[in-house]
Amino acid sequence: MDITANLISARVAPVIRTSTEAAARRGVELLADEGFALFEITLTTPGAIEVIADLAKDPDLTVGVGTVLNVDQGKAAIDAGASFVVSPAFIPGLSETGAASGVPVALGAATPTEALRANEAGAAFVKVFPAAQLGGPGFIKALKSVYPMIDIMPTGGIEAGNLADYFAAGAACVGMGGKLVSDAALVAKDDEAIRAAARTVKAALKELA
Questions:
Q1: Distance in angstroms (rounded) separating the CA atoms of residues 189 and 207
Q2: Assign residue 19 a region: left if phi > 0, alpha if psi is -120 to 50, beta otherwise?
Q3: What's the CA gap between 88 and 43, in Å, rounded?
Q4: What confidence tens digit (pLDDT) does each residue in 42-56 have?
Q5: Of 52, 96, 110, 173, whose Cβ has the fewest other Cβ atoms within 10 Å?
Q6: What are phi and psi of 155, to 5 degrees?
Q7: Are 85 and 75 in contact (CB under 8 A)?
Q8: How far is CA 155 from CA 12, 31, 55, 58, in A?
Q9: SS3 168
Q10: Closest alpha carbon to 10 in 60, 49, 81, 69
């Protein structure tokens, strides 16, 4: 399976960042039921490695790890079954760690210099974070104008209403957290809020097709 192509094809990677392990598992369950098959489980989520290990057993799901801050964390997640690795920063050695296991890595960048260094280090994607605060689609468009060869994965402040703008600006795929997977709704067991958000995003993606 070409995970890089899978990420681009999926267009949206739900970012599972919850306050409890149970909420993370429920979030994935609900979104999978609504047609999502690719997930980023952040290491800030309690029990993240265990969640990744369990979900990776499902052949219908593509499960990666997010908020990776060092090589050891990346190795642990890959050993647990993570099929892609995402960091909000430039972590020396992380791309090489992923490459050794055939796992694509997204390294974080907030400036043109960081984006180029991440690409030169072998990042499959450059995660622009926090995308909204850095200038949103306009910033992505500017980066792509000088780096057409870089696949950019904006994350932070992305919602159904601005998806089209990010893709028009040149995003390869996006990470979507709280606007799609609300921890508050999950903790409150408000399943319908999660389902409604999922359907709204799916409808927005259909408009892009």
A1: 30
A2: alpha
A3: 12
A4: 999 999 999 999 999
A5: 96
A6: -145, 140
A7: no
A8: 10, 18, 23, 26
A9: helix
A10: 60
Give the integer Cα–Cα distance in Å for 107 and 120: 11
121: phi then psi, degrees, rounded to nearest 5: -80, -5
pTM for the complete prediction? 0.97
- In the block, residue with structure tokens 């972590």: 91
pLDDT digits (tens, 9 = 90+) for 69-109: 999 999 999 999 999 999 999 999 999 999 999 999 999 99
Contact 48, 75 (CB under 8 A): no
Residues 6 or more apart whose Cβ sits within 8 Å of residue 9: none
Secondary structure letter of residue 157 according to DSSP: S
For 25, 85, 97, the CA distances from 72, given in Å and listed in that order, are: 24, 12, 9
Token pair, residue 103, equals: 């796992």
One-letter amino acid of 15: V
Q: Would you give the end-to-end CA distance of the chain in angstroms? A: 23
> How is residue 160 annotated by DSSP?
G
**DSSP sequence for 36-68:** --EEEEETTSTTHHHHHHHHTT-TT-EEEEE--
**The token pair that represents 67 in the structure block:** 């908020």
Helix (H) or strand (E) holding 176: strand 174-176
Rounded-to-integer distance, Cα 188 and Cα 55, Å: 23
The secondary element (H helix, E strand) that includes residue 209 is none
